[in-house]
Design brief:
single chain, alpha/beta, Rossmann fold, two-stranded antiparallel ribbon, 23% helix, 29% strand
Length: 195
């Protein structure tokens, strides 16, 4: 069991699937969100959590003010945990309820086509299985760009094993942050106008 570390849901227990996922540790999540909130105002933001697993990253963003959270996960057991973990989010605030959507699908296909959120997502959190991280980075990132899934000032966060090669950011992204926390490496980039 893991918990939300900060914000309006602080201390909330998060169910974790019995196998097949690797939740981001509290230490890494705390450092990660410290870096995110120094770059993006999460209040009212739309967040996309790819390879969501338990949804801990997206839920941490909701706890810190995001109003829209989309979770994409292909593992059936993880989706069941996501449903448990997101139940009740709509009643967090009577003035602006949180809208959580769970999509069971494989990537990059799950982000093919036009963005379902007007204006795009402000933050994208991607935490693929370490053994498959390199197979997903470039196609998923390109699909996000091509489909207009990113707000103009979006921050894309990619988590991987420090043993894996660096993320292959396609043309149209500018990397602005790279850190290693134990076994975990994190890269952050923003879309840039390439015209």
């Amino acid at each position: 069991m893991t918990r939300i570390i900060s914000g309006r849901l602080r201390g909330l227990s998060i169910a974790v699937p019995p196998a097949g996922t690797r939740p981001t540790t509290d230490r890494v999540r705390e450092a990660l969100f410290s870096a995110i909130v120094s770059r993006v105002d999460l209040e009212g933001a739309a967040v996309l959590d790819l390879f969501a697993g338990s949804g801990a990253l997206g839920l941490e963003a909701v706890s810190r003010g995001a109003d829209i959270a989309w979770f994409v996960e292909e593992n059936a057991r993880a989706v069941a945990c996501l449903k448990t973990n997101t139940a009740g989010l709509g009643s967090l605030s009577s003035s602006s309820p949180v809208r959580a959507t769970i999509k069971r699908a494989a990537l990059p296909g799950a982000v093919g086509g036009p963005c379902p959120v007007p204006g795009g997502f402000h933050v994208v959190l991607a935490d693929p299985p370490y053994d498959r991280s390199g197979a997903h980075d470039e196609p998923v990132l390109q699909a996000l760009l091509d489909g207009g899934w990113l707000a103009p000032d979006a921050l894309v966060v990619w988590e991987r094993s420090k043993r894996d090669p660096a993320v292959r950011w396609p043309e149209g992204f500018e990397v602005e942050f790279e850190r290693t926390y134990g076994e975990t490496a994190v890269e952050m980039a923003r879309p840039v106008d390439t015209v």
